[in-house]
Amino acid sequence: MSRDQRIFELIQRMRDGRLHTAAELGAIVGVSTRTIWRDMAMMAATGIPVEGERGLGYILRSPLVLPPLMLTAEELEALLEGLARVSEDAGQLGKSARAVRFKITTLLPQAGLAPDPDDLA
């Protein structure tokens, strides 16, 4: 696992708002406690809202917002097609897929792609 992948995984694990020990985090990503200490120091120095110290643990203090996602036309088409197929499910998964599809299509600059809001019921 590269350092970038490790940092991403650490951030994902810490998004739960809980206090995590270096030993726990190290076991998750397969590195030593000392490496976690260095990673946490680097993350804090670069502006990631991680707080804590050796011996106590680390916590992500505020939600981390990712930058906007850029999709190609083909990727967007694949995403919308997949959501459309899952939307056919009558259960909670279908309802969630319809809601996600509506959110995505309302952000698109092209008119006419948004599903009917009545379909979300």
TrEMBL record:
Helix-turn-helix type domain residues: 7-59
Q: Quote the InterPro entries the UniProt record gives.
A: CBASS_pafABC_assoc_protein, HTH_11, WH-like_DNA-bd_sf, WH_DNA-bd_sf
Residues annotated as coiled-coil are none
Instruction: Note the Pfam families from the entry.
Output: HTH_11
**Which Gene3D superfamilies is this protein grouped with?**
Winged helix-like DNA-binding domain superfamily/Winged helix DNA-binding domain
SUPFAM superfamilies recorded for this chain? Answer: Winged helix' DNA-binding domain
Please state what the protein is called. Answer: HTH domain-containing protein
Organism name? Pseudorhodobacter antarcticus
